Amino acid sequence: MNPEHAPLIEMKNIEKHFGSVIALNGVSLEIYPGECHCLLGDNGAGKSTFIKTMSGVHKPTKGEILFEGTPMHFEDPRDAITAGIATVYQDLAMIPLMSVSRNFFMGNEPEKKFGPLKLFDHDYANRVTMEEMRTMGINLRGPEQAVGTLSGGERQTVAIARAVHFGAKVLILDEPTSALGVRQTANVLATIDKVRKQGIAVVFITHNVRHAMAVGDRFTVLNRGQTLGTAQRGQITPDELQDMMAGGQEMVALEGSLGGTV
Amino acid sequence: MSNTADNPVSDERIKQTPAWRKALIRPELGGICGTIIVFVLFAIFAGDSGMFNSQGILNWSVVSAQFMIIAVGACLLMIAGEFDLSVGSMIGFAGMMIAIFTITLGWPVWQAIIVTFALCTAIGALNGIIVVRTGLPSFIVTLAFLFILRGFTIYLPQLIERKTIIGGIDKAAEGDWLAALFGGKILTGLFTWLGDAGIIAVFERGNRAGQPVVDGVPMLIVWALVLVAFGHFVLTRTKFGNWIFASGGDAQAARYVGVPVNRVKILMFMFTAFCACVFATCQVMEFGSAGADRGLLKEFEAIIAVVIGGALLTGGYGSVIGAALGALIFGVVQQGLFFANVESSLFRVFLGVILLFAVVLNTYIRRMITGER
Predict the structure, then answer these.
(1) Is the dihedral of CA B20, B25, B28, B34 positive or negative?
(2) Most exposed of A158, A189, B25, B292 (fewest Cβ within 10 Å)?
(3) Contacts of A229-235 spanning 24+ positions with Cβ under 8 A
(4) In the sheet that A21-31 helps form, which strands lie side by side, from edge to edge?
(5) How does DSSP classify residue B295?
């Protein structure tokens, strides 16, 4: 993180209620360009609700979202995408039956004029897809290859490359590594690192402390709808993070019986 | 990144796929194979029955074209992830509305047709809105409309005209510019020339002696070809086509990247209703009447044609050309059994068998595409 930079996004005291359930109870967060901000928390801590507020899926009940210093009121995900906030969801990033290039340009199809008609520019889409995939280190058999034939890590990478290509300034990754094997996880983490170096802010949601420690610059822990604080890289140990996530007490007892393997 | 970037093409875990097999993995495969088989079979068993002279060709072309018109709508809708079971009832309803507007209310036919199209696409939109708003399966919502529309189609003419078939539309439609677009024929000059040249059969006696037996291409066939071309173009060549695939492939994933999924689905319901309306109008103009039982079971025939054409029932994958081939197979077999002197009830047996076969083949093709095991 570079402290001279102004924050790209400021989330101020965000509250979100679903009926009588208080999912978020005043969460604040700042995200700076070029940082990888890890958002940690156990299941039900409010991580998903929080990022869905950030990406325009939910409207906050209370609180303010500032994007590049101006207050934003996202009506739907489209508004957030237009502003430069892209989200990659774990399972819902890609459509397996469609080709990589159709997926890559889904919702942002390039068009060329053909007389009075506007056509989907397949040549352009195929070319760009191949180039972007090569940059990310994925070798496709062809742009027409169906996404269903890619591995989970490759799908995440395609989704990330897509978001970056379409000018995302903030990239929100919702548990991108939770369903992946060791090597695929390494690939996704390497991709996150590449993206960050391009000056894009990455919000990395995970409940795996080791994955967070591998790429994170700052760490925010959520618990029961509230922030337990934000720590800089080097100011906190993996064990401390783990304890914060689990809410302390019970985890100590558990870890004793498991011999520190968790 | 890791070393995957350094060893590009060869991955020891992936078997080489032969080129012929790649060429085969396309949604139209079943339709293409089926069409070839069907034509070869009937050429052998009914080749000398008149099935392939001008009247015979017209006969099965018209039936195929009817299937095609509704299959195009059903195909795009199925790729967008939804069904419409109200197509058959919509056909009956649309025909009846044209008849009531023309005969009972005395409107000019063009006005009756335009109002009916507007009414039917509005009902299609209503179907779509209910489906996307409630999140109910389209199967249930359109099943309700199957009964609602059929009920009105039987009730209204009885209430107004005290009968279930309203005739006399052909007289009213004479000289009407819009009616000609559905009931007319094109290329009549070419067919007269072909008849004169002795290439196609001509009447030998009667007051039409010397005129060709088949005197033109019915507008029904033109509509079918235009709708197939339009559907194929939209699906494969436009941005909207990508949205159709995306909406059916995974609606939530599509929404997250900004595809207006609800709008796409509602529009596809409207297009399906439009196709049903084209079918109904052509039929009414051909018969000169509208009957309360028109279009029975058409929704299932449309869906079967689409599935034979390689579309997945779960959405997100399919082809308009495939659906058109499915419709062609349908028409050729239905009429061909008649030419081959086979009991026509066996057509239903054929339908069931080919449907089962097509679904199994499609599932296999999908596994090949997505690499599922």
Answers:
(1) positive
(2) B25
(3) A230/A29, A232/A1
(4) A21-31, A9-18, A62-67, A70-71
(5) T
Interface test with B, best of A106, A114, A154 (most B CBs within 10 A): A106
Question: For domain A9-94+150-258, is the CATH number 3.30.950.10?
Answer: no
Residues of B in contact with A89 (CB under 8 A): 253, 256
Among A92, A106, A137, beta carbon nearest to B4: A137
Locus of tokens 């889904």:
A106
pTM score: 0.85
Paired residues of B217 in beta bridges: B186
> What tokens appear for B165 in the block?
């078939």
Taking the C-alpha atoms of residue B284 and residue B96, their distance in angstroms, rounded to an integer, is 9
Q: Euclidean distance between the first and final Cα of chain B, in Å?
A: 29
Given the cut 0.90, state whether the ipTM is greater than it: no
Chain B hits for A194, Cβ within 8 Å: 1
| Domains, chain B, with CATH or none | 32-368 (1.10.3470)
User: Across the interface, which of A95, A118, A138 has its CB nearest the CB of B246?
Assistant: A95
Residue B259 near chain A (CB below 8 Å)? yes
DSSP state letters, B306-352? HHHTT--TTSS---HHHHHHHHHHHHHHHHHHHHTT--TTHHHHHHH
> Across the interface, do B258 and A78 touch by the CB < 8 Å criterion?
yes
Count of other CB atoms within 10 angstroms of residue B47: 12
